[in-house]
Amino acid sequence: MPAMTLGRYMPYDSLMHRLDPRIKLFAMVTIMVSIFLRFGSVWTDLALYGLMFVFIFILMRITKIKLSQLYRQLKPLWFMLLFLLFINLLLPNTQDISTYFDAWGVKIYYAALLQTFYIVFRLVLMIALTLIITASTRPLDLTYAIEWYLIPWKIIRFPSHEVAMTMSIALRFIPTLLEETYRIMKAQASRGVDFVHGKLKEKLRAIVSLIVPLFISAFQRSEELANAMEARGYDPSATRTRYRELTWHRRDFFALLMVLVYLGGFIYLLTTGFTLPL
Amino acid sequence: MAMIKVEHLSFAYEDTKKVLNDISLTIPQGQYVALMGHNGSGKSTLAKLLAGLLDKKTGIITIDGEVLTPSSIKEIRKKLGIVFQNPDNQFIGSTVADDLAFGLENRLVPHGKMQSMIETYADQVGMKSFLHQEPTSLSGGQKQRVAIAGVLAMQPKVLLLDEATAMLDPQGKKEIRDLILTIRKQYPTLTILAITHDVEEAVLADQVMVLNQGQLAFHGLPDTLFKDVKLVTSLKLTLPFVYQLLAAFPKHAPKQIFDLNAWADALCR
Amino acid sequence: MPIKLHHVFHVYSQKTPFQFEALHDVSVVIEEHSFTAIIGHTGSGKSTLIQHLNALLLPTSGSLEVNEIVIQANQLPKAVKKIRQYAGVVFQFPEAQLFEEHVIEDVMFGPLNFGKTKIEAKQAAQLALQQVGLDESFYDRSPFELSGGERRRVAIAGILAMQPKVLILDEPTAGLDPVGAAMMMSLFTQLHQQGMTIIIVTHDMELVLKFASHVKVMEHGKVIKQSTPKDLFYGKDASKDFIKPPLVQLIKALRKKGKTISSTQERSLTDLVQGWKVS
């Protein structure tokens, strides 16, 4: 069986890789929110967005991600982006219909163009951010970070630890389940199933012949797992100690500081109605 | 002192006929028992009942002096460790170390003690160099060794193996057979109950129990069982190779029946 | 027709950091009507090899010939369905492929995919179920309420119903108890006697000794030895690489001590005893 990487984790050794996943998660959410902010004027927006782009680009380079990898993530979306462009141009969602130019008899509003640019830009940045986080963080470490953020919610009886356990078990079994999917596909192909060609009715049968066994096996697997976990003394509601602990280092303090400065800066700009004198 | 005591145990799954019919047996501390039986004889059901994974039974199960009830099962689980048949479906951690840690976390072992315990028990089963490996890169035999280490780390009184080698290839089966012998030497007071249909495994046990159609049909030495060809056939079992030789050439049996060279000598005379 | 492989290579994940050569320059012929065992350590390429035989995998270079249809590198033949029907592959733990509501429907799935009418498929399914020892009472039962051994037999019936000329099995006795394993092997022996070519991938040397007519040994993606069980276990350069069945060890010890053991006695203890009593 060919080896597989889980998600887009790339085992390099960069500063980003060494940061605590909790700070990375916090940073990601903060920066994502900042992308959606609007400021005093269009030029202010564009200038600040430009700054964000540079910032994220630097982060990408730190994580040792090449632009070509970002491009590969965006490639499948080109059609959707083009579609968005057309929709926004033909059905402008803006009050500003003052400036426009004529192109082949259609009125193209600058505001609509700008709107589309914003959408595309935000999408690219979000994908770049996600790429940075998933490339530099092991999926399991991400679940530890999520669990840490979920702990306070235990007060309102949210099953934080159970959810975290579910996530880590799901992660552990993804390669196993993928392998099983391949095996069943091969078994059914050996019985004459064609997963690619054929009429709709045949394709549906093909999918059923794949999904039913997978579900059956998944249910059996979960029952056996539950038995094994119970037999090993697992009690979802009881306290447990931890083997893997996240450790906070000095570099994480600096990263936190940077995120807070970033956040603070944007809040300041927003509340003072900062506008570029252009 | 009886470690495992079963008294008049009967069990039936929903509206089917009885899978276990009035079974009574005792296993003293420190014994290695192989429990055999044809498919459908009830041996897996018995294992599940001992593990407390099934409930509606009649009869009494006592483990280390404590009666098994839904309320006592938690305590009993600390003394009885189980290794199941499917190597994948009991491997919970993302790596060997994480899986070994799982049991320790459940038992509230302090974080500081975990690493050394994990290394110790991984070493006992020969998996110390695999601590950072993911389960997908391990063989069935290796995964079962990790499962056994996970149980040993709990320092149980009973090790229950529920057809632990059934899904392994011959190499894996041998690994586990050898490991059990090693464990016996290291933990002489550990009681081992192995549910199996592998006769090569059964010959290594102190005692063999055979279930047939829900009843205990034999309880005694493996040697006694395998020398009785008629009984073995009626119980739908097979004979280990040397016992097949014994049945074919009764007059040529050497003193050491497990020594093929001795057989060759004897047969040439 | 024999199955022929010409210089077959197979590389997984080419041009990625995970590139792995699973088959290296494999040129073998699998004789028609043979009972061929393919043995080798885990990772030697056995599974990759058998997946080429029904065009589930294509060679990255080289070619092979199945049922006189040539499979070229990286080219899925147009007649792929013919190949898949001719060479039926049963994977390890085949009971995982069952999905229909009733046993009979699941066994009919294969023949229906290969163009049989419902009536033809049903007949084929009934015959196949009979061959694996499951009677009419099983037809309308759900596969999921059967025991493990029964489910495996249903899965194998599913392939037999396709009426393949070559039956390829990957560890067919894995997980079965000795009685179940014996039943399974006697089924394959019967099919072999009826003219089917049987190819078994296995780790079980006792099986190879008792049933195989030909053996192919694989290591690191290459076929390093092609011979017969007699040669493999009793020959002069018999490999020390795998565990020899106790019967082989005994016979070797006997021969060392000067006892004559003929080749008709070499394959099972029953044969040994029979020949003994006669002499």
Describe the structure concisely.
The complex is a heterotrimer of chains A (278), B (269) and C (279). With 278 residues, chain A is mainly alpha-helical.
What series of H and E elements makes up the topology of chain C?
EEEEHEEHEHHHEHEHEEHHH
Main sheet specs of chain C: 6 strands, mixed
* Proportion of helical residues of chain C: 25-40%
Rounded radius of gyration of chain B (Å): 20 Å
Verbal overview:
The complex is a heterotrimer of chains A (278), B (269) and C (279). By secondary structure, chain A is an all-alpha fold. Chain A folds into two domains: 14-156 and 250-278, no CATH class; 160-235, no CATH class. Helices cover 67% and strands 3% of the residues of chain A. Chain A has a two-stranded antiparallel ribbon with strand order 1-2. The radius of gyration of chain A is 24 Å and the shape is globular. By secondary structure, chain B is of the alpha/beta class. Chain B has eleven helices and ten strands. Chain B has a six-stranded mixed β-sheet with strand order 6-7-8-3-9-10, sandwiched between helices. A four-stranded antiparallel β-sheet of chain B has the order 2-1-4-5, covered by helices on one side. In chain B, helix 5 runs parallel beside helix 6 (170-186). The N and C termini of chain B lie far apart (47 Å). With 279 residues, chain C is α/β, with parallel strands linked by helices. Chain C contains ten helices and eleven strands. Chain C has helices spanning 46-53, 80-86, 103-113, 118-131, 148-160, 178-193, 205-211, 229-234, 246-256, 269-278, and strands spanning 3-12, 20-26, 29-30, 35-40, 61-66, 69-71, 87-90, 166-170, 197-201, 214-219, 222-227. Chain C is globular. The termini of chain C are far apart. Chains in contact: A-B, A-C, B-C. At the A-B interface, helix 8 and helix 9 of A face helix 3 and helix 4 of B.
